[in-house]
């Protein structure tokens, strides 16, 4: 029995020493856990407001119908503010296409005294601008850079008065034109988007100008250019919620 026990102990010690010389076994492989990461989705319709600064450069020639013909140039500037509404769709990953309508109030008005006859005063005012444009943007995560362009309409007032006798002529009407612009937006949260935008608008306003004494004059060779720098905020109705990508 003693010999058998000694043999067992010798075998166990040899086996343990041999096991200690073996390299460590690798840990079993474990597949990575799939994690869902939300990706910003710009698809939806929105409504919001904007405010900022506008300035203009206008030129026109006025014939008062009694032989006084004179050209004028205006460069007024003022506050501009209003609202916007639109819908957009995100496709091919980063591209966003949409349509947008805006209305803006401003008071770009200037009065000039005639050089030829100082008793005559001429006033030109651009009071409202409405647009209907298409938009194309490129989005990366919460940021989007976009360009826009399309139809524009402005309410333009042309007023002339002879301060010596009180005879005046006034024509206030909407005039069609076009606009281009662009901006940068940031999605603060899935429904709130803020941004900054620059726009250029151009209009013509050739028209007849009937005076209070019955004479009829005209405005021609007219051109009104308006520039605006705006900040804006919109509430995005994103019914589909964020797109989810799995990693």
**Number of H/I helices:** 1
Q: Separation of termini?
A: 65 Å
**If you compute it from the alpha carbons, what radius of gyration comes out, rounded to the nearest whole angstrom?**
36 Å
Task: Report the sheet with the most strands, covering strand number, pairing sense and barrel closure.
Answer: 8 strands, antiparallel, barrel
What do the pLDDT scores average to? 88
Order of the strands making up the biggest sheet: 2-4-5-6-7-8-9-11
Number of strands: 12
Query: In CATH's first tier, which class applies?
Result: Mainly Beta
| Structural domain tally | 1
Class from secondary-structure proportions: mainly beta
> Would you list the SSEs in sequence order as H and E?
HEEEEEEEEEEEE
Strand content: over 45%
**Shape verdict:** elongated
Low-pLDDT regions: 3-12, 14-20
The CATH architecture would be Beta Barrel
Using the coordinates shown, work out and report the CATH topology.
Answer: Porin
What portion of residues is helical? under 10%
Task: Explain the layout of strands and helices.
Layout: H1 2-20, E1 36-39, E2 44-63, E3 69-74, E4 77-91, E5 95-113, E6 120-140, E7 143-162, E8 168-189, E9 192-203, E10 207-210, E11 216-237, E12 243-246
Antiparallel strand pairs: 1-12, 2-3, 2-4, 2-11, 4-5, 5-6, 6-7, 7-8, 8-9, 9-11, 10-11
Q: How is this structure best described in words?
A:
By secondary structure, the chain is mainly beta. The chain has a single domain (36-239), classed as Porin (Beta Barrel), CATH 2.40.160.20. It has one helix at 2-20; strands at residues 36-39, 44-63, 69-74, 77-91, 95-113, 120-140, 143-162, 168-189, 192-203, 207-210, 216-237, 243-246. The protein has an eight-stranded antiparallel beta barrel with strand order 2-4-5-6-7-8-9-11. Strands 1-12 form a two-stranded antiparallel ribbon.
């Amino acid at each position: 029995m003693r010999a058998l026990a000694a043999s067992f102990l010798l075998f166990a010690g040899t086996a343990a020493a041999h096991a200690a010389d073996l390299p460590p076994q690798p840990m079993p492989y474990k597949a990575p856990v799939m994690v869902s990461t939300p990706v910003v989705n710009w698809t939806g319709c929105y409504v919001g407001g904007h405010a900022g600064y506008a300035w203009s450069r206008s030129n026109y020639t006025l014939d008062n119908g009694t032989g006084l013909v004179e050209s004028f140039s205006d460069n007024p500037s003022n506050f501009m503010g209003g609202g916007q509404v639109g819908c957009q769709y995100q496709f091919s990953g980063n591209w966003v296409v949409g349509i947008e309508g805006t209305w803006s109030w401003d008071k770009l008005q200037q009065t000039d005294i005639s050089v030829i006859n100082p008793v005559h005063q001429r006033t030109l005012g651009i009071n409202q601008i409405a647009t209907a444009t298409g938009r194309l943007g490129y989005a990366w995560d919460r940021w989007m850079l976009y360009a826009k362009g399309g139809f524009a309409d402005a309410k333009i007032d042309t007023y002339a008065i002879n301060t010596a006798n009180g005879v005046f002529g006034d024509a206030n009407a909407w005039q069609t034109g076009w606009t281009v612009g662009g901006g940068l937006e940031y999605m603060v949260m899935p429904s709130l988007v803020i941004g900054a935008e620059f726009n250029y608008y151009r209009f013509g306003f050739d028209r007849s100008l009937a005076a209070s004494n019955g004479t009829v004059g005209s405005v021609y060779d007219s051109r009104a250019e308006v520039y605006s720098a705006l900040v804006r905020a919109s509430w995005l109705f994103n019914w589909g919620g964020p797109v989810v990508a799995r990693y």
